[in-house]
Specification:
The protein has helices spanning 10-41, 58-73, 80-106, 118-124, 134-148, 157-180, 197-213, 220-225, 229-255, 260-303, 322-328, 347-361, 406-430, 472-477, 481-497, 508-511, 514-526, 540-545, 547-559, 576-579, 591-594, 601-616, 629-638, and strands at residues 307-312, 317-320, 366-374, 377-389, 395-404, 434-443, 449-459, 465-466, 502-505, 534-539, 563-569, 586-589, 620-623, 642-643, 652-653. With 656 residues, the chain is α/β, with parallel strands linked by helices. An 8-stranded mixed β-barrel has the order 6-7-9-10-11-12-13-14, surrounded by 4 helices. Strands 2-1-5-4-3 form a 5-stranded antiparallel sheet, with helices on both faces. Strand 11 (563-569), helix 20 (576-579) and strand 12 (586-589) form a beta-alpha-beta unit. Helix 2 (58-73) runs antiparallel to helix 3, helix 5 runs parallel beside helix 7 and helix 15 (481-497) packs parallel to helix 17. The two termini are 78 Å apart.
């Protein structure tokens, strides 16, 4: 099962291992306290489970309790002081273990044997020693060494730490098994000598607690990293369960007075039933989780935005999702099962998949892009073809994930085009190839020059003029109009300082951008007294797009002494009642109504209405696109105030 779909993540096992040292040490403390209470009160059962088994010596209880504190001090994220305290306790326990081993080796006593509960021990068994047995002292010595190495990180310490812990638990494990099956003669454990089962159990708990303090070291690091870690834990539990249950239940039956043969039969039966039930339960749980995982996988595959398919080694589809059906032009996944990709892909695309399939059957993955036409629309597809493994290093099929990346490609091409265009415009400005042209606006009756409209022009690197329609739409698309508008304003200020009256066009992006508006306001303010030489034109579309922005802009310009004209009026289909909030000086009649004025009576009616509205609100009217004298004459008769067009003057380079 894929790791991402597993119920048991490493975090859960780490959480279990994080609290285990505390739980194990608490159990060890309980064993140690019970032992001391037994010696203090004379209750023999507290020092051993059965009267035929050796007692846990007071020194043994003290040593395991001290080692428990040493392990706790170094668990989690200990401070340097905690590590020092833990190492100190481990060193003290190890030193005492060496003293006891030396006593056994020399056959003498250094006076520690009868330090506690000497009267009680002499009354119970005159020959009983208060020191731990040799087996206990040796296991404590190894455990002390491991605890001292817990937080020491050198190249050799992980191996030494692991070996010390394994060696420390070997003898207690063997002794516990001997107690359970009453094979005490194997370990020469009599009524008064040998390692008590309480001691062995406590040492085993401490070893597991010590392992859990460093789950970054083997063997726990190896276990946590495995995807089947919980299966391994359960397997160990199942393997260790039968002998443990047999031994414990046999001891319980014997304690109830049953004969040995009857105790054996009942304990084996009970163990078999218990382990069988537990195994059946675990298998059922695993099957349930497997089915749930498969259902989650099915839901993920069915609802995935990418087309997912799996084919067998003969290239026939065995699984497809709904996204695949949409790309393949079918309605139901069942229509693809048993068929091959040859029936769904064009020859040029199919050739790429054939090569990828060959590599997949060799165990290799392939990723490539291709074009695919679906319902008349050309799509760009990112395809991933990979081998499907049985989990036993055997390739059983070919998987494919196909993702529609058409929109992503479009956006990438547009980031790229924007960067290229920004570089193009920046070079044009720095090279002086972005220039201002001016077209005159005159009084319709006197033909006197009233104002000049500034028009942006671009000179190519070859010196030829580039038509505005070839670059302004891109500038609008990529948000470059504020940069161009600010450049044109700077040129307008130069001309106004030279005594000319100019009108600067501003885009909707500029008047709607606070930083651009701040720059425009600062430029006009810092320019000083321009004597009304600067005015602005905004289109009807820009004004209607955001009346609040247009109103704020016109009010700001009015405060700065700049007039505002509404350009291309009549094309936005906007009611003038909405536009009356804007502080305007004039309306510019769009040339689309002016050029057909002589032939189209409807255009004449529109022009009449615009002139009437302008007069009603005290605004000046300017007719754009005047190309001949007849049109000029009719405009004068209709009452237009100003005119502009090639009849009056074509745009020409503006020079201060």
């Amino acid at each position: 099962m894929p790791e991402a779909l597993s119920n048991h993540s490493p975090g859960r096992l780490e959480a279990v291992l994080a609290w285990w040292p505390r739980a194990a040490v608490v159990a060890v403390f309980a064993i140690a306290v019970a032992d001391w209470a037994g010696w203090a009160t004379g209750i023999d059962r507290l020092t051993r489970f059965f009267s035929s088994w050796p007692q846990m010596a007071p020194w043994s209880a003290l040593l395991v309790a001290g080692l428990g504190i040493a392990i706790l001090a170094q668990s989690g994220r200990p401070s340097r002081a905690q590590v020092g305290a833990g190492c100190g306790l481990a060193a003290a326990a190890g030193a005492l273990a060496l003293v006891f081993l030396a006593e056994y080796a020399t056959g003498s006593s250094f006076g520690l044997d009868q330090m506690w509960f000497s009267e009680t021990m002499r009354a119970a068994q005159p020959y009983l020693l208060g020191r731990p047995s040799p087996q206990t002292a040796f296991s404590v010595l190894l455990l002390s060494l491991a605890v001292g190495l817990t937080r020491l990180d050198r190249r050799w310490t992980p191996a030494a730490w692991t070996l010390s812990l394994l060696a420390a638990t070997a003898l207690p494990d063997f002794i516990v098994a001997s107690y359970i099956f009453e094979s005490l003669s194997i370990v020469t454990a009599t009524r008064s000598t040998g390692m008590g089962i309480s001691t062995a159990t406590a040492i085993m708990l401490l070893v597991t607690a010590a392992f859990a303090t460093r789950i970054d070291r083997n063997p726990l690091a190896w276990l946590v990293a495995r995807p089947d870690r919980w299966t391994l834990v359960r397997m160990v539990g199942i393997l260790a369960g039968p002998p443990t249950l047999i031994g414990l239940s046999r001891a319980a039956f014997l304690n109830l007075g049953l004969r040995d043969d009857a105790a054996w039969a009942l304990s084996i039966s009970l163990s078999t039933i218990t382990v069988g039930v537990a195994t059946f339960y675990l298998i059922q749980q695993e099957q349930k989780k497997l089915l749930e995982a498969r259902e989650r996988i099915r839901l993920i595959v069915d609802n995935a935005p990418s087309a997912i398919s799996i084919r067998n080694c003969e290239h026939h589809f065995e699984l497809v999702n709904q996204a695949f059906c949409e790309l393949a032009g079918i309605t139901d996944p069942g229509q693809a099962l048993g068929r091959t990709a040859d029936e769904f892909l064009p020859p040029d695309v199919l050739a790429k998949y054939h090569g990828a399939d060959t590599r997949a059957l060799r165990g290799e993955s392939t990723r490539f892009e291709h074009e695919l036409t679906v319902d008349g629309t050309q799509l760009t597809i990112d395809a991933q073809v990979f081998p499907v493994d049985s989990g036993r290093s055997q390739i059983i099929g070919i998987g494919a994930i196909s993702t529609d990346i058409t929109e992503r490609k479009r956006l990438e091409n547009e980031m790229r085009e924007r960067l290229d265009f920004e570089e193009f415009i920046s070079h044009a400005i720095s090279d002086g190839r972005l220039v201002a042209y001016a077209q005159p606006i005159v009084d319709a009756r006197t033909a006197q020059l009233v104002e000049e409209e500034l028009l942006v022009r671009l000179v190519g690197s070859d010196g030829k003029l580039i038509a505005p329609d070839s670059f302004l739409p891109q500038a609008e698309r990529f948000g470059m109009m504020p940069l161009i508008d600010r450049y044109m304003l700077a040129r307008g200020i130069e001309l106004a300082r030279a005594g000319r009256h100019v009108a600067v066009n501003l885009s909707a992006n500029s008047i709607g951008d606070p930083s651009t508006m701040d720059a425009i306001t600062d430029a006009i303010t810092n320019a000083g007294d321009l004597d009304g030489g600067i005015s602005f034109e905004i289109t009807e579309h820009a004004a209607l797009a955001s009346l609040d922005v247009a109103e704020h802009f016109s009010d700001e310009m009015k405060l700065l002494g700049c007039q505002v004209a509404l350009d291309d009026f009549g094309t936005g289909f906007g009611a003038f009642t909405e536009l009356r909030r804007i502080s305007l000086h004039s309306l510019k009649i769009d040339m689309s109504f002016v050029r057909g004025l002589l032939e189209n009576k409807r255009d004449e009616s529109v022009v009449k209405v615009i002139i009437s509205i302008a007069k009603e609100f005290g605004l000046v009217t300017t007719a754009e696109g005047v190309e001949n004298a007849e049109t000029l004459a009719l405009l004068v008769d209709l009452g237009v105030d100003q005119v502009q067009g090639h009849l009056i003057g074509a745009p020409a380079p503006a020079s201060a």
